[in-house]
What we know:
Chain A has helices spanning 2-21, 24-41, 46-59, 139-142, 223-226, 454-457, and strands at 63-69, 76-86, 92-102, 108-118, 125-128, 148-163, 176-194, 199-214, 241-250, 253-254, 259-271, 279-294, 324-339, 353-354, 373-374, 377-390, 393-405, 417-428, 431-440, 447-452. By secondary structure, chain A is mainly beta. Chain A has a domain at 1-114. Chain B is α/β, with parallel strands linked by helices.
Amino acid sequence: MDRLLGLPVLAVLVATGASLQAQQSQLGADFAHEAKDFSEACSGSFFKALAGCAQDLFTDHPVHIGMGSLAPGNGFGAGPAFVAHHTPNERWRLSWNADAVVAGNLSWRAGLYMTAIYIPRIQITPVLQPAAPAAAPRKTDLVVQYPVINAYAQTTTLNTLQVYGLGPGSSIRGQAQYGLRETITGANVLWPVLPRWKLSLFGELNGRFVSLRNTTSGSTPSLEQNYTEATLPGLTSQPGVLQAGFGIRLQPALIRDYLHLNYALTVQQFAAPGSNDSFTRFTADLGHDFPFYGKVFPFERRAFNGPNECAASPGARCPPIVRDRWGSFGLRLLISESFVPSGNVVPFYFQPTLGGSDINGAQWLASYNDYRFRAPNLMVARASFEHAIWGPFGFQFLVDEGKVALHPGDLGFNHLAHTYAAGLTLRAGGFPQVSFLFAWGGQKTTHTLVSMDAALLGGSARPSLF
Amino acid sequence: MSAALDRLKRIVVLMMENRSFDHMLGSLHAQDPRIDGLTGSESNPDTTGATVQVSPQAEFQSQLDPDPGHHYPDVDLQLFPGAADRSAPPSMQGFIQSYFQQRQDVAHSHNILNYFPAGKLPVLTTLAREFAVFNRWFASIPGPTIPNRAFAHFGTSFGKVDMSLFYLGEKYLSIYERLLQAGHTAKIYYYDQQSSTMALAFLLKNQPQLFATYEQFLADCAAGNLPDYSFIEPNYTDHDADNGAELASDQHPDHDVQAGELFMASIYNAIRGNEALWESTALLIVYDEHGGIYDHVPPPACLSDGFEDQSTGFQFDRLGVRVPAVLVSPWVGAGTVISPLNAAGTGVDNPRIFEHACIPATVTSFFIGAYDARSPREKAADTFLDLLSLDAPRTDCLTFNTGSSAPAASPAFAARMAAGAGAAAFHAAAPAAPTAARTVAVPRPSPAAMNRDRPLSTLLQDQIQHLHKAELTLPPDQQTGVDVHSIATESQAADYFQKVTSRLHIQAARAGA
């Protein structure tokens, strides 16, 4: 089985290599420039050279040092990264990214990622317009979003993962440790269909190949010491799975932009021929963001005032007239339900988790241990509040309420676990970019959370591990 | 103070990336000889010694990868190939030689002399012809993005010619801080979080007053809430968005140039879409630097701003390469050319020289007035609001239709372009229609939507009047003889548009010949 794991990676490598061959000259030029760039970046005064070198080492192309956080418990990894791009004509933009990072506990991730953007050309027509158009344009009227295709092959080896049993009744005493290797090869497509409503269609097709192994550390038992195939489906065998998915994304701004929706509805079919590990998962992720706008000046300046005379009295300052994004209030509801044919199971390693961070790094019920609650079905809601307080600093407060369930019908708003988190945000460009939060509640444990806006992390979008 | 300045409340600057004047607007010389663009005979030697002429073969993307060199040593080579004396005027003969260094490919290096035909850039070229185009707007230094943008923010780069991001604690305040201190409002509208902002120097200051995204810019335009001064940054990166992928719209090589055209159109349309805002706003569209792409006008010497770059010895006493710059306002006459080429076509007599320090100079002068704590370069910089010189705002301004629902042509606009607009007539036909390859199919309306006898809308009535005025410029024997007052339905209007525009096109072709 392990030999088969490498085949998808090899296929993408060959395909990528063939594509890169066509632009070898350009790639050669990029390599030649990188040495020059590095030399220039590291010159000058000590602090300038230090900053320049660091920036170059971690961001330059085609080769730089890639960094990334692996699943909780496996630390932060670093390693070589390669970036290339090719624009063959006026219709396509292609880019490749390959990286491999290794963490302190020898967990690692290596992947190849390709993105292709298709650009249908737009006709732009000047039109004489004696008067202003009746309706003011919105971003969705003005900005073209293009179909994007991602292809990837990624292997992740994680040496320290935890399981506490399945369902809401799991106990901290059920903790067991294991290691996992998962290779994912596939592609996804995001295709905009109704720009005004920010409605797009999403499709994916993945091959998932998982292998488990026992690991122990300290007093934490291994999987097989605590569980059996009956209590933890997927423990004894991990067949390859073909996983197809289809979904829609809907992200309009409503009520004069005071309500931003961020909806994603997805259906995924996991098919494992020759085994009983096939099932269907439905996920609804419903986000709502209510931005606060402070300092709204409710009326226009008087027409007779000149630009330096807008204040009501001589010497007084002009009132601000712009809306600033001082903060926002958010509500998010995530529901994931698995529909399993009779006799089938959902392997535990494909079941979503709540508590701390999940295997993809998403934080829910943050004060609990990582992966604390695991089941085929879950429901979690979050209320969030963030507001600027002084200079670049802001304040953030989160409340999470959620539960997991062995059966879809067991989900509901009763017996919810809850946690709170509060702390500071570092704002840049008008938005919180980095947050330092202290989480508490639930089982009386606490966590300190540091997170960075995903937009700042760059790199390629990586496929979910479950 | 002029009527325009009495009404002016806001200045908006959109700064794009890395394209030269000739590359983007050089083709307009064929349409208006006052515009100092390309005749087609301009050339550079390549590395084999062969002479290569400029060519209208520029594509939206794929030709300028790798990125042409535009740091100080690269620009120095582009301007002064083989010359030891930097006090003489630059020869502008080293562009191909410089670009060859990027890829060691002779044929590919010729791309640096490519320029866009006007029809391929309908937004920038139309705005240039409909409003005011600067023949002599230069980058502030012969170097890269950050120090050139620093001139737009501070009026100086504080002695920097490199991409250093450290502009904290410098001796002059940015234009934004000056405005806030004076009780005015200012904002840097950057595209989104993924794109981020080039104005990193202020990123942690004045939060959140100074920053907002492009999406809020659109909302602020609709609500009439634009600050006194807005600086707009395009999208600098291709990245995933809510609904697909968004392309970088900064036009930096080798980003998609049409994405920048769409962005430019959206900024214009957003301001144009609010009548009160439109009449009280001046929009400057300018590029930060030439990006290593050919331009034929030698950059002039300028007043040093008192700094010297230690690594190159550059004393900030010479401007960078010429860049496109267009001033848009209903108070600007159509077809305005600032520092027009002389009648002999040999040069510009007594040119007004503009560079990025003119931006804070203009904004400071207009909103704050006398202000001493500025760089020598900014104090000496020309200002441009005098170009808003009409007695009343124009009522004949255009909008841009984009996307698959855009009409294939606008008869009134075509007629206007063919017949000449405003005080300064255009000298050739309208920008060429996009080629079929770049035109998406226009969806057919359903049969039920068709109504040839639908009464005229106000818009169509206005278009008929515009077209009728254009028709009257034709010789009497070429006029249609149609009584425009008898036109009552859309089908009659369509017939009239067809008749007049075909005659105007013929006349324009004859004039061009």
